[in-house]
Hints:
Order of helices and strands: HEEEHHEHHHHHEEHEHEHHH
CATH class of the largest domain: Alpha Beta
Number of domains: 2
Amino acid sequence: MTDNPHARYFSPDYDTARSRFLQAAETAGATVERAFHPHATGPGGIDLSMDMAVLGAADASSALVMISGTHGPEGYCGSGVQTGMLASGMAGELAAHHRIVLIHAHNPYGFAWDTRFNEDNIDLNRNYLPDFTAPLPANPSYDAIAAAAAPASRDPDALEAAEMALLTYARDHGFGALQQALTGGQYTHPQGVYFGGTAPSWSNLTIQRLFSAGLEGIERLACIDMHTGLGPFGVGEIICEAAPGSAHFTRAVAAFGDDICSTKDGTSVSAELQGTLDTALLALAGSRWSAVIALEFGTVDPMSVFRATQASSWLHVHGDRNGPDARDIRQASRDAFYPQDPAWTQAVWDRATSLMAAAGRHLAA
C-alpha cells in the first residue's frame, strides 16, 4: 500500500469532513461564515451547511479560492485538500501574500447523501444560467434518450434495455455525442439526470453571496473548483471553459500552467457544458483580473461513473433514501467519485496544492 502522509485530511463521510474542515479553520485562525440549509437535512436528520473559511489580511489585493462539493460525493476530494491546506499550515503561508478563500460543500445535500445532484435533483454545474426566463436552453439530443438516461424502474431488465439504448446511440453517433447529449445539461426533464433546474437553487444563491463577501476589495483572483469522475485514475486535468487564445484562457495558463484543456476545442475529458459555476464566478469577478478553472480527477471507468450517477438520482427521485437499497447505491456512488486509495488521495493532494502554489506565485509576481 502506498504511504500517504496526507490521507488523514480525507474523510469517510460528509459530517466528518465538515467537522474536520471547521476545526482546521478554527485552529488556523480563519474567519468562518456558515450558511445552513433552510430545509434539507442529511442522514439521521443532521443539519447541512455550506461553509467558508477566509485567511489573510483584510487589505489583501489578491486571492486564491478553492471550492469543494459541487457534485456531492466529489466533495470528499476537495474537502480533503481544503482541510489539509489549513491543518498543514500551507493556507497560512499563502495568506502572508494573498487572501485565501475556501468554500466547503457547495452542494451539502449531495455530499451528505452521496449523490451528484442536489435536494431538487439539480446538477449545480448546470444551474448557473445568466437568465432563467423561458425558453430555457434546449437539448434535443437528451430528449431523444431521456427514458434510457433515467429509467423510472431499477428492474434488471429495464436497466439492461436502457443501457443498450444508450450504447446504440453511441454506436450510431459516437461516444462523444452521447457524452454531450447526456452531460451537456438539460432543462426539461426534472426527474432526469444532469437537470439544470428552472430557477437558481439555494446553493447557487448562497455561493454567489459567499464568493462576493469573501472577495470584497480583491483586485486579482485565481479559483479552482474541485471535481472527480472523468479521466484516468488519479490524473488531475485542468479544465477551462474558454477557447484557446481567448483572454480568459490566457490568464488561466498564466496562473496554472500550460497543461490546460478546453471544453471548446475537444481536448478536455469534459463535454461542453451550459450553466456552469465557473462562468458565473467569472461574471461575479467582473472587471477584476481572474482565472477560474475546474480541476477534474479521474476515478473509475465512465460507465461505472454513469451507472452510479443514474442509480443515486433514481434513489432520490423515485426511491427511498433510507430504504433497503439505499446503502448499496450510496456506497457505489461514493466509490465511483471517491476512491479510498492512498495513491489516489496522494495524487489529488500533490496536484491540487502544486496548482494553488503556482497560482500564488503568479499573483504575487
